[in-house]
Amino acid sequence: MEDLQKQFSELQAKFVEQSERLRDYTGLLEQAREDQRQALAMAKVVIEQKATAPATVFIQRDRRCPDFSGSTSPGEVSVAEWIASMKAYFQVCKVPEEDQVEVLKQHLKGEAKFTVKLKLESGAKSADEIFLALKEVYGDKTPIGVRLREFYDRRQAAGEKVRAYAYDLQDKLNQLKAQDSTRVPDIDVMLKEQFVIGLRDDTLRREMKKEVKEKPTQTFSALMQAAIDWCEEEEISQDPSSKNQARGAVHVAQAVDPPTALSLQSLHDNIQKIAARQEELFRAMQGASDHQGRPRRPPLKDDEGG
C-alpha cells in the first residue's frame, strides 16, 4: 500500500511539473503569436505605403547647357543638337517662356550670335524665333529626296553588328524627321520595315519577318533586341568550346546558389506561414493540456476485486 501511495505521489508531482512547464510554453507561445501579429501588421503597412507612394523625381537645377557658335569644327554641336538640348533644358528646369530668350542669348557665341542679331533686327520675341533663324542658316541643307534614299538604301554591311546597323538606321530617320516630320508618319513602323529588309543574314531576316507578323505592336527597340539575341544564340550554338563552358557554368550555378534579397511581399507571406504554424502548435498544446488535466478514472474491478 505504501508503495502504491509513493508511486501515486511521484506521478502527481510529475503531472504538476508537466502542467507548469506546459503553462510556461503556452505563455511563450502567446507572446510569440502577439509578436508575429504585430510584425505582420507592420509589414502590411509598409507594403501598402510602398505601393501608393509616388516616385521621387530629382531635377538637376544646375544642369549646364552647351554653347552654339555655328562652327563646323570637330567637337562642336550641330544646330539640331543644340536646339534639342535647349528645349530639354527648358522643360526639365521649367524655365518660363519670358526668360527663354535671355537664356538662349547667353549660350549663343561668335557668328551664331551675330546671325540672330541681324536676322531679328527688332529683337527676338520668343525662343522659337531664334531656333527658326538658326535653322535657316545652319540647318541641314541636304534635300529631302537624298535623305529618303539614304534611309531606304541602307543595308547591313559585311561584319557590321546588328546593333550598329540599327542605330545608324535610326539616326538617318531622325535626320529626315528633323527636316520634314510629315515624311515620317510612324517612326516605329518605318524603322521595323527597313530594319528587317536590310538584314544581311537570310535566316535572321526570315525570323524577324515572322516576329513582326506575330507581334505587330512590338517596338523597334524590342525587335532590335530580338535580332541581337538571335545572333548571340547562333554564335554560341556554332562554337563547340562554348558548350563545355556553358556546362561548367550550369554546374557552378547549381553548386553555388547566390542569396536573393527578401522582398517585403515575401516577408509578409513568410510571417503569415509562421503565424499559421504557431496557431496549429498552440491548438495542439491546448489539446494536450486539456487531455492531461482530465482526472483519470480508476480502473474497473471485477467481482473478485482484481
UniProtKB/TrEMBL annotation:
Pfam families: PNMA
Domain Paraneoplastic antigen Ma-like C-terminal: start-end pairs: 68-224
InterPro entries (UniProt xref): PNMA, PNMA_C
Region Disordered, residue ranges: 278-306
Annotated protein name in UniProt: Paraneoplastic antigen Ma-like C-terminal domain-containing protein
Origin species: Aldrovandia affinis
